[in-house]
Amino acid sequence: MTDPAAASPQDTAQARAFLDRLDAAAQRWATPCGTGTMAWRGWGEGPAALLLHGGAGSWRHWARNIAALARTHRVVAADLPGLGDSARAPEPIAAETIAAIVSAGLATALGAEDPYDLVGFSFGGVIAGVMAAGAGPRLRSLTLFGTGGLGPPNRSVELVKLRDLTGEARVAAHRENLLRMMLADPARIDALALEIQEQNTSRARLNSSPMWISPVLHDALPRVHGPVRGIWGAHEMPDAALLEARIGLLRQARPDAAVEVIPDAGHWAFYEAAERCNTLLARILAA
Questions:
Q1: Is 226 within 8 Å of 140 (Cβ atoms)?
Q2: Is 187 helix (H, G, I), strand (E, B) or coil?
Q3: What local confidence, expressed as pLDDT, does residue 287 receive?
Q4: What pLDDT sits at residue 7?
C-alpha cells in the first residue's frame, strides 16, 4: 500500500485512485445493522487495532494512517451505522445502540475473545468509549482523538450547506468546511482531503451531533478497563480555554488519562499531522 503521509496525491484523479487502491487492498466483510449491514475493512497482520471514524465520515478518515499502522498491526476500520457504506441503526438512535451493533460486529471481525486496541475520532470516540466500557480486559487501550461525548462546554461550528452545490462551488464549500471544522492550516486542504470530504458527506445519513454534545462518554469512561489517552489538535477549538475545558472533562472522568496536544493541527489532527500521529499511534499500540 502506498503511504501518503509523506506525499499526498496532487489532484482529484490521483486522490480517487489512491482511495480506490487502499479499498481494493482491504479484506471486506459485513455484519448485521438494522435492516441491512455494517461495512468493515481490514489491512495487515498482527495484533488488532480498531479505528472508528468521526461524524459524517467513513473509514476514509484514516487514509493517511492505515498503511503505516498495518506494517505492525491488523488494522480494522468500520463504517459506523448510517455512515459510509453501512445501513442505519434501528430507532431510537443512541450511542449505546450503535456501540452494541459495532461490538457485535467486532466479534465477527476479530473473534469474541481476541484482544484489541481501540482508537476513536470525534463521534467515533463517543462510540469507542461506550464500547470500551463493556469490553472488559480484552481491551488493551483506548485512544480518543478530538472526542465528543464529554458534555458541555462544546464548540459550535456553522458549516456551508452543500445540498444544491455542484462543480467548483461544491469544492469551494468543502474547502471552507474543512477549514472551519477539521484542519487548521489551509495548505493542508489538499486533493485527498477534499476527495475524502466529498465521498464521506455524500454518503452520510446520520446526524451524530446530539450524541457528540452529550455526556455519554464522560459517564462511560470510569468503567473502561486499561489505559485511556486523549489527543487533541492545538487549534481545534476556538480558543485555548475551551480546549483546556475539554481536557479537564476527560481528566474529571479518568484522572489517570494521558493527554497529548498536537501543535499546528486542528480537529482532524491525524490527517493534518499524519507522520507525527502515526509515530505516536505506533508507540501507543506497541506499549
A1: yes
A2: helix
A3: 87
A4: 58
Residues of the chain with pLDDT under 70: 1-7
260 phi, psi to nearest 5 deg: -135, 140
Q: What is the pTM of this model?
A: 0.96
103's grid cell: 461490538
Single-letter amino acid code for the residue at 115: P
153 cis-preceded (ω within 30 degrees of 0): yes
Q: Which residue segments constitute the domains of the chain, with CATH numbers given?
A: 31-286 (3.40.50.1820)
Angle at alpha carbon of residue 66, lines to 57 and 124, rounded to 5°: 35
Greatest pairwise CA separation for the chain in angstroms: 50
Which helix (H) or strand (E) element contains residue 120?
Answer: strand 116-121
pLDDT tens digit string along 46-71? Answer: 999 999 999 999 999 999 999 999 99
Cis omega (within 30 of 0) on the bond before 222? no
φ, ψ for residue 264, nearest 5 deg? 60, 35
- Pairing state of beta strands 48-52 and 116-121? parallel
